[in-house]
RNA sequence: GGCCUCAUCGUCUAGUCUGGUCUAGGACACACGGUUCUCAUCCGUGGAACUCGGGUUCAAAUCCCGAUGAGGCCA
């Protein structure tokens, strides 16, 4: 069978992590089977759909490297197709116009719930040829609707509980369940892989496929991505847009890798996978049934792993956008060295400015910070003076980490911290930072001496 | 409320289909220790889970039933 999958987001919000994960699984499955993966924008809800959201979805998928085949399909461009199918259904008496008002329907629903019935509307106006009102499916199916879910096995529904479900607001305004069925069939989607929240839509869609004589796709319902409180991931759990992760300085490959492992695993102990490896290994029967919490901490770890693996030049390019404070041209040349120092310390690129600001401007810190263990001011000052005198003798081309380390350690006492801690703080102004030799190599001789002097001055 | 889905360390999960090799494995996080000052990296050590109750069986995390819990959809 020719494998063809799709992701069908509505442009009513930014690209959601849940949507991205579904897209990812569809992509992985299609590519694993040398099939196609397409993007269909479900923009029939004119009120809520916006072009900027479509742009965001497109940008987000591209950023993640979830590439679709062919052109983007938009439901708004397929209205004629829906109309044709709707007319057929109407003509064959399988659909009808429902004259009931929203108020009447609400009333009916209320009664049903009160009497512990499943809320549904089975219309008493099925036979009438009205020509306006909501178009509904005439549902008089009696036999159980069954389908085999690739992840969950056989699932059954009682069709009587569905009622005469709605298909369209009018001939040119199709509703979700109807449009999806027409699209998936006419676009020859072989596998519908989507979130678990769509399981309950499936029987309606199957009934429609049967009524229209359309090919039924293979269904696979993915477990949901959950927030900390185990409910479906949503805005109140914090960042849910892929764009937010980009802005925080997560690398697309890291997010890609992390999302792939949410609800799926290869059955081996490896955790870091390239896109290629994931395509090669992905299989639908290793997908979980249970929902998975989006664990930010683990994402951070994985992102750190990817940052460390990244070639320095590329990392520098990616990092440039994260500095809010102005960096002069002369400072730009040391950016590469600075980032090299921070590379093993980073979890995400947004940490960069705060971690590296002291390379670009004079540090501000409390004199207390210069003190290591029980040192008094005099010993701190002595240490700094020693450091300065060593530095003054170093030739400009001797300002390398290796050379400085050799010179300083030769002069350091038994407790190296007495020399190294005050020196490091004088240079960085920070409690946590790279080592003093690395910093001096980047800063250069003059600037290093300047900062040591500033520290000595603070002690007076 | 009705229907549907799910259930192993705090979290992601392996193991479940094809019962024994599981005194339940890995990773993240956490704690402790090591790696020429701090942090990070790297390395090591540790604590930490089969939701509960029945049943089947010589044997159940694994099969069956029930309960409970969690989630989803429907308005």
From TrEMBL:
Gene3D superfamilies: 1.10.10.350, HUPs. Residues 315-456 form the Aminoacyl-tRNA synthetase class I anticodon-binding domain. It catalyses: tRNA(Glu) + L-glutamate + ATP = L-glutamyl-tRNA(Glu) + AMP + diphosphate. The keyword Transport does not apply. InterPro entries: aa-tRNA-synth_I_cd-bd, aa-tRNA-synth_I_codon-bd_sub2, aa-tRNA-synth_I_CS, aa_tRNA-synth_I_cd-bd_sf, Glu-tRNA-ligase_bac/mito, Glu/Gln-tRNA-synth, Glu/Gln-tRNA-synth_Ib_cat-dom, GluQ/Sye. Belongs to the class-I aminoacyl-tRNA synthetase family. Glutamate--tRNA ligase type 1 subfamily. This is Glutamate--tRNA ligase. It comes from Candidatus Giovannonibacteria bacterium RIFCSPHIGHO2_02_43_13.
């Amino acid at each position: 069978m020719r494998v063809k999958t799709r992701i069908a987001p509505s442009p009513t919000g930014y690209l959601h992590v849940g949507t991205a994960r579904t897209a990812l699984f569809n992509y992985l499955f299609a590519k694993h089977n040398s099939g196609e993966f397409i993007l269909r924008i479900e923009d029939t809800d004119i009120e809520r759909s916006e072009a900027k959201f479509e742009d965001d979805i497109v940008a987000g998928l591209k950023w993640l490297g979830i590439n679709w085949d062919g052109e983007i399909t938009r439901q708004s461009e397929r209205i004629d197709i829906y109309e044709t199918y709707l007319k057929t259904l109407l003509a064959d008496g399988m659909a009808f116009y429902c004259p009931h008002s929203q108020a009447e329907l609400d009333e009916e629903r209320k009664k049903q719930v009160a009497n512990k019935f499943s809320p549904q509307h089975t219309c008493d106006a099925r036979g009438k040829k009205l020509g306006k009102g909501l178009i509904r499916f005439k549902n008089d199916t009696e036999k159980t609707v069954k389908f085999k879910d690739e992840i969950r096995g056989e699932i059954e529904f009682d069709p009587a509980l569905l009622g005469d479900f709605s298909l369209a607001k009018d001939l040119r305004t199709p509703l979700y369940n109807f449009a999806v069925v027409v699209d998936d069939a006419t676009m020859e989607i072989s596998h519908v892989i989507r979130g678990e929240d769509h399981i309950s839509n499936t029987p309606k869609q199957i009934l429609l496929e049967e009524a229209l004589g359309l090919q039924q796709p293979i269904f696979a319902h993915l477990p949901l991505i959950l927030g900390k409180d185990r409910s479906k991931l949503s805005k109140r759990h914090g960042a849910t847009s892929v764009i937010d992760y980009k802005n925080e300085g997560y690398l697309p490959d890291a997010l890609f890798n992390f999302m792939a492992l949410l609800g799926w695993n290869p059955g081996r102990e490896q955790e870091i996978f390239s896109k290629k490896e994931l395509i090669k290994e992905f299989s639908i029967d290793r997908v979980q049934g249970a929902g998975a919490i989006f664990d930010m901490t683990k994402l951070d770890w994985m992102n750190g792993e990817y940052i460390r693996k990244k070639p320095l030049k590329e990392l520098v390019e990616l990092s440039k956008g994260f500095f809010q404070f102005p960096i002069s041209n002369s400072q730009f040349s040391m950016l590469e060295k600075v980032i090299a120092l921070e590379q093993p310390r980073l979890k995400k690129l947004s940490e960069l400015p705060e971690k590296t600001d002291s390379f670009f401007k004079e540090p501000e810190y409390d004199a207390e910070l210069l003190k290591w263990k029980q040192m008094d001011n005099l010993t701190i000052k002595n240490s700094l003076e020693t450091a300065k005198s060593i530095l003054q003798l170093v030739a400009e081309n001797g300002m390398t980490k290796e050379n400085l380390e050799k010179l300083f350690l030769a002069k350091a006492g038994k407790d190296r911290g007495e020399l190294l801690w005050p020196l490091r703080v004088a240079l960085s102004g920070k409690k946590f930072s790279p080592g003093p030799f690395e910093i001096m190599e980047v800063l250069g001789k003059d600037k290093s001496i300047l900062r040591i002097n500033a520290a000595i001055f603070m002690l007076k």
